[in-house]
């Protein structure tokens, strides 16, 4: 079970952050963007996947928080 962030689908609604029990995803409210600095805290509970209304957090087999394109 792996989770991939698809930035182009994200509306920065912050629902995933509110549902994450570990603080693995955080939200920069000033700049309105997700922060993945603490992503090592992820326990793959998939709450963020279910919380996201826009399919910006999805399950993937091959990726675990592929955030390589976040700042492109
Ligand atoms: S899978 Fe769970 S622990 Fe990991 S970022 Fe999503 S809500 Fe947080
Ligand atoms: S819930 Fe989905 S759309 Fe909202 S901030 Fe998280 S990833 Fe982006």
TrEMBL record:
The record's annotation in InterPro entries points to: 4Fe4S_Fe-S-bd (IPR017896), 4Fe4S_Fe_S_CS (IPR017900)
**Can you tell which superkingdom this protein's organism belongs to?**
Eukaryota
Domain 4Fe-4S ferredoxin-type, first and last residues per copy = 1-30, 32-62
Its name, as the record gives it, is Cysteine-rich protein
Q: Which Gene3D superfamilies match?
A: 3.30.70.20
SUPFAM superfamilies named among the record's database cross-references: 4Fe-4S ferredoxins
The major lineage groups are:
Eukaryota, Metamonada, Diplomonadida, Hexamitidae, Hexamitinae
